[in-house]
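User: Thanks for the earlier help. One more: Cadherin-12. Can you show the sequence and predicted structure together?

Assistant: Of course, both are below.
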Amino acid sequence: KLHSDLDKGVGTVKYTLSGDGAGTVFTIDETTGDIHAIRSLDREEKPFYTLRAQAVDVDTKKPLEPESEFIIKVQDINDNEPKFLDGPYVASVPEMSPVGAYVLQVKATDADDPTYGNSARVVYSILQGQPYFSIDPKTGVIRTALPNMDREVKEQYQVLIQAKDMGGQLGGLAGTTTVNITLTDVNDNPPRFPKSIFHLKVPETSHVGSAIGRIRAVDPDFGKNAEIEYNIVPGDGGNLFDITTDEYTQEGVIKLKKPLDFETKKAYTFKVEASNLHLDHRFHSVGPFKDTATVKINVLDMDEPPVFSKPMYTMEVYEDTPVGTIIGAVTAQDLDAGSSSVRYFMDWKNDVDSYFTIDTTEGTIATNELLDRESTAQYNFSIIASKVSNPLLTSKVNVIINVLDVNEFPPEISVPYETSVCENAKPGQVIQIITAADKDLSPAGQRFSFKLSSEASNKPNFTVHDYRNNTAGIETRRNGYSRRQQELYFLPVVIEDSSYPVQSSTNTLTIRVCRCDSDGTIQSCNVEAIFLPVGLSTGALIAILLCIVILLVIVVLYVALRRQKKKDTLMTSKEDIRDNVIHYDDEGGGEEDTQAFDIGALRNPKVIEDNKIRRDIKPDTLRFTRHRPPAEDNTDIRDFINQRLKENDVDPSAPPYDSLATYAYEGNGSVAESLSSIDSLTTEADQDYDYLSDWGPRFKILADMFGEESYNPDKVT
């Protein structure tokens, strides 16, 4: 209730309310100032409200007093039960745990005011789950209440927990939750066989390594605590079998280690032990965590294929052995009680098998063709044996036949075939060590023997010393050798091998006599000294050789001078204009022939260096030109040319050297007609060359040479 001292009760004062919940949760009587709650209040929703109140004049609307603030606090009542916010709970505890073992702690929350009364004081209790578990009323800790709880008896427990406020008093509110508790496994149980004897039947044809049966020991534990290891206790038949653990089923899988044979032994008995792999030391006092059972195995008789006496056969035969020769045999037996006969066959796979045959009854193997070790040194094939009573039951064996080499080739001396001996050799001196080689495939331990041939053993020059290790030494038998008397010795050495049949060969060793120094070092093995006169010294030999060299030098100089003199006689100068004269077998093509000899070469001798040859004429003789100085200043050449011109002008058969070309056939169709001077006048002076200027520019050079001036032999070049 609000009241102002200025309120006289006559209705002149009006009260107003503002703040938290004004108008919604709380309302005020404007005349009396009474405050009322217009709906239910929840302390857990809002524990207090802050409001502001003011008194104002009804007429003027002006405040009569300053605004005042007050707080309305909601008082708590026990209207909320305890709640397990994390429930339901799941917990576990090892089986066989002692009393009071910790399991889990639960907690309930009460929304009431813990500072006011007992509305929020919670007490815990178990409604369901006794007498296995207990709970602390204040802390909510759950513990085991019974000892030795066995998982194998009961694994899951559901415990109902209650939390009650008001300290558990009558009228308090309560909440519940469920706790699911699981007993975890510990290895508290040993494996146990459900029966003491296991009977198994196994065919004798079972393969080694195959599983022939399973046994199982039962362990009520779980997980790794139930893992079992099986072992065969040493005893009767235990070495023929092995046992392993199937990791998924924990069964013992018995496997065969060795072949079974009904005819040899029909039954086996042994013991198998099952034990845990992971032991818990807390339960050792319970007893040994293992169990033992007996396994009896009966071998079943089966119809089996024949069995060969060996897993593989190896035989040997010499090459070129006659066809049909027996080289060996294979043997197979039927070990069954009926003991059927056996037949043998070749396993035909390729043409190699045709080299041999086998007797179907006896199993003997014989050659079917001639064998050659150099072609095939080894044969590998298979033989099949089958029972007469049941041909489908067969067995196979490999046969290897090695072709042995026949001693066909005799041994021969290894290189070198030639050696030497010093002239000053002493008796018994070894001059050469020789070895032997055999083209045959020599077996291990092959021995070669060395000796002199019968005709050489009586000669006093050399001997052979066999060292009996496939080597021999050539030894001297006399004191000193003379090259002058005999330069070469031929020593026949006989070599034999130790194979069958024995082969031998005679090898000739050439021994050359050489001149050596006192230490035995060879200085010369040549024969030049043999042909020199007795007593001729080295100085005399050098003098003779020097004289021969001097005579050869004199002869060479003499011949060279004679050649030079002959050359000077034929040619007075190094330059000869005749080198410019070229002989042809045919005349040129006349005016149309532009490849003819260039007459300008006569005016300029340097043009000769071009060495041009006519394309259509093959010269008889072609001389290589050399560089010459101009001929105008050489008087000897000019005189020589003048002399030759005079001789040829008076000789009707001489070629016209004025053109420096000889033609055997004149050109056809030339407007200049023939250039031959065979029918010319006796002298050049009687000729008229003015017509050359009428022949055109092609003959301008000739016209200039012969038409503008009279003939003067002194000006001819």
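User: Great, one quick takeaway?

Assistant: The CA atoms of residues 104 and 142 lie 5 Å apart.
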